[in-house]
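Notebook B, p. 112. Complex prediction, attempt 2.
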Amino acid sequence: MKLSHRAETVQASPIRKLKPFADAALARGIRIYQLNIGQPDIETPREMLDVYANFQEKVLAYGPSQGLDEYRTHLVRYYARHNISINRDDIVVTTAGSEAIVFAMLVTCNPGDEIIIPEPFYTNYNGFATMTGVKIVPLTTYAENGFKLPADDKISALITERTRAILLCNPGNPTGAVYHRSDLERMAALARQHDLYIITDEVYREFIYDGLTHTSILHLPDLADRAIMVDSISKRYSACGARIGCLISRNPALIATVIKFAQARLCPPTLDQLAAKAAIDIEGKYFDRILQEYDKRRNIVYEELQKIDDIICVKPEGAFYIIAKLPIEDADDFAVWLLSNFSRDNETVMVAPAQGFYATPGLGKNEIRLAYVLNEQSLRKAMKLFREGLAEYLNQK
Amino acid sequence: MKLSHRAETVQASPIRKLKPFADAALARGIRIYQLNIGQPDIETPREMLDVYANFQEKVLAYGPSQGLDEYRTHLVRYYARHNISINRDDIVVTTAGSEAIVFAMLVTCNPGDEIIIPEPFYTNYNGFATMTGVKIVPLTTYAENGFKLPADDKISALITERTRAILLCNPGNPTGAVYHRSDLERMAALARQHDLYIITDEVYREFIYDGLTHTSILHLPDLADRAIMVDSISKRYSACGARIGCLISRNPALIATVIKFAQARLCPPTLDQLAAKAAIDIEGKYFDRILQEYDKRRNIVYEELQKIDDIICVKPEGAFYIIAKLPIEDADDFAVWLLSNFSRDNETVMVAPAQGFYATPGLGKNEIRLAYVLNEQSLRKAMKLFREGLAEYLNQK
């Protein structure tokens, strides 16, 4: 039977393509170091897990569609610590960051409307755009300069009468690039000039290195109407399985509408919200240690990559990803080869070809994304395998 | 700033309209018996809550987009008990039944395509239709005959070239109506004749009385291509806050596409799936008792309603709702009046006006939905208040 047109066109996960090859490697007894996915190995805070253990209610009931009052009250405190001043009513708790992006697209765009997103971008934005009928217009950025935002005229050239928003992931997945205050001010000026929304995905807010501080879109003045911030606890507290995020805006009409969509799906998970609330209480002491750990990992990956001839890669300032342009033709082929034809002492490494993060055909073909989510020892081993694998791959071509 | 057209048109929860009046009543010190919402008071099985308490992993990680293998394996066993023979690969675990409905709409319909749904229907279908750009075409059913499905010609008359599916909620929220095997066979014949999908929302499967057995769309032969079943654990295990549902189809191409949409949002909540798995193990002994309890409540509500002159209401065979047509003009006005102008010993009752469950303007204006989700003592009290309130309301008009 015929499926819908959007069903036929929705993008399959580009990372999933590698799974059969990984399964085959595992079946041959090969150990795989996974640098391809963003599942951190960091332990979820004990205080969060204790919430699940200590739940005393007899009925696991619906919460409010907007999110539990007590959790939203805690979120106000969390954001205040990051110098973001909001009210509880500015927040809608969502089922992870994913749902927040979908809501942001639904309330800003009609089907066929356009959102400008710097590419390479988080590949799942494609899926959300297909769901909501939004057209993503890619704004190409480049490995050579660390994926900086292009000049204004490059951006203005993409704006049409259907453009409704600019979406920025800051710090960026998959690039690790950080947009600074001056970048955001420039985007805000463009948004005002062309009457656009600015949607920022700030789920990696704390993952920022070299003593830099993070600028949120909510730090900027005079953007109450047009700023929409999307957040998630998944990476922050290594609680990816909890599925808690939020959407924040100081535009009351926009929030009122998001709540209407939220009412249709009744509520986000109840217990996960209570766990997320507990994480806010302990966050300072938890996160300092985590950040040091990720910084160490970043340095390891970057230093190892620098040992490779003809690699193009600027040290990223945030998140836990790095994109490198390799002296190869086809990163898809290389990633499959690592799983299928390469091993050292029955071990190999899995990387994410970057092409799936670009919307412009042909771009990213010789780039890969690495997620530094393994502990130091595993990461050093993985990077050694990566370097040796690349050398052998280049040699046998 | 301008919001999208769909943002401006998405339906606010019709039940939410009453909240300010309920809040005001609470502020005056009035106790409210809530017959307006489907939040059961039944305890969540201890065995489910124990899963949260005994979680031993150190990282609360992502699960697979399709759902945890171990949970889907258990679901196969659950459905086998209901004589529904499926494979693990036929199942996509979703974030509650809500997401399953959205996925079903996305894969069957393009924006502007139509789904026929018997009205009155679960009001949140409207929100999902707005999200996905689907047009709901209501097939009116009537309180007078217990909301039975109309004759074929009434249904055929609604089918256009944009019709893609018939959606049936069985047993029905808000009607409590049960579609029997002969009903489903009739719908299946229509679906084959007009090349339509049949989507069934079977979240109340077990809530079926008078010794009847439930017929699932998956019981019917030769529908593998076109049958899509949507399910949820929320009511079954009184675990509304857990947000676990699923979509099931024996059409592999359809499931492959649902998985692509599911990949965009990564995964449903991890711990909630493990809890849902535990519920399957204990279900038989848990549910028998629950069903007796709900049957008792159904009888109380129905008998109390029968004491009212000029009421129209057929005893429902399933779910835990009942719709009654009252000898009044405007159920909205009556519901507000109960909260604002009526009380006995500082107590009143809250009901859901049924108009919000109809898509055809003007229908349901003198109907209310009652959810019998209170224990016997509270329910008897609530129904007494309801009868006395109605008498006083009629008297003072």
